[in-house]
Amino acid sequence: MADNISFIINQLAEDRELYFNAVAPPIIQTSNFVFNDFKTLRETFADEFSGEYIYTKSKNPTVDILRKKLAALQGAEDCVVTNSGSSAIFCSILANVKAGDHIVSVAKPYSWAVRMFEVLLPRFQVTHTYVDGREVENFMNATQANTTLIYLESPNSFNFHLQDLEAIAHFAKSKNITTIIDNSYCTPLYQKPHHLGIDLCLHSATKYIAGHSDTVAGVITGSRERIKKIFDSELLNSGTSISPFNAWLLIRGLRTLEIRLQRISETTLKVVDFLKNHPKIERVIYPFDPDFPQYELATKQMTGAGGLLTIIPKSVDYQDIERFCLSLKNFLLAVSWGGHESLVMPKAAGMNPEDYDKNNPEHRMIRLYIGLEDADFLIEDLKNALAII
Ligand SMILES: *Cc1c(COP(=O)(O)O)cnc(C)c1O
């Protein structure tokens, strides 16, 4: 029962008798909670994780409804919900390293994981090695005596490189190394890293889970022991827990997560099909396209691929990339993804025009996010914009 998506989304943790049988859960917008005796207060001071509600920075009833749903969806014992995906990255990594430790990370993870590895952690004598995550041996070869953490992001959210989660988790366990994956691309519905042996799984809930481009949030799932460790220290010390209102928005987002993903996945396959057959496109990168180099692994460990894809137009100038992106009427030029609206984000926008090399396919990469619009509506727009370059 606990694995049934419909049950988790619609019923789990909704004790409606507690709130006047309201169908939608209330936003318990309070900072603190009242105690009627010293003993309960004392016990809660000693253990906020297991104790009563005391202060919304640690626990809140609206947030707890969301926690139970997200943990169940991801197949984990427990979770913490944070005020951004970046704070989920921060808390989960920091909880698993100390001075002198070494991290093996997949190459090119999300930018704020990069900043943590390269700028923040070196101040505390924590070192790292990046590896091409497509080969399991690379993780083994990069592991040192002081490696305590392997950091994964599969698929990566720009080039969509995958890592073999089961094989890496198996290796990490044999060395007593903690594994963390950023699972934002797949959502808890399309990839179950805990079932493959991964210890901690995090998401930018800003993306598909919230789903409406109206809030920023994150989530970390794992065993109760690992989640309690993060809660007791990194979460409470950084004070990065989510607000009751934003938690309520995520509960609302979850109601439609499954159908939004279904719709987005169907539309994306149609868009991919159109783009693959377009004469001005050199390559389309999408994990559930049979021509994707790791297609076999993708279909083995993922049950869907959602709406992110990257296109590489045939040799074009910087100005052509700019003209293409601005000609699109129904793809907005904006960061993030996972909402209702389709988006475009070219690699070139992060580069100075002088550094752009039209012979380098990486420089020509343009990431598209497919939202909830109709497939023909989006394809027509892409057709018109491609005609201009
Ligand atoms: C957006 C994103 C994050 C960061 O999440 P925020 O909620 O923006 O802090 C982390 N990982 C991936 C893959 C993302 O796309």
Concise summary:
With 389 residues, the protein is α/β, with parallel strands linked by helices. 38% of the residues lie in helices and 15% in strands. The protein has two domains: 2-255, Aspartate Aminotransferase, domain 2, CATH 3.40.640; 257-386, Aspartate Aminotransferase, domain 1 (Alpha-Beta Complex).
Verbal overview:
- There is one protein chain.
- The strands form 2 sheets. The chain has a 7-stranded mixed β-sheet, with helices on both faces.
- Helix 7 links the parallel strand 4 and strand 5.
- The radius of gyration is 22 Å and the shape is globular.
- Helix 3 crosses helix 10 and helix 13 runs antiparallel to helix 14.
- It has 2 domains: 254 residues, Aspartate Aminotransferase, domain 2, CATH 3.40.640.10; 130 residues, Aspartate Aminotransferase, domain 1 (Alpha-Beta Complex).
- With 389 residues, the protein is of the alpha/beta class.
- Bound molecules: pyridoxal-5'-phosphate (PLP).
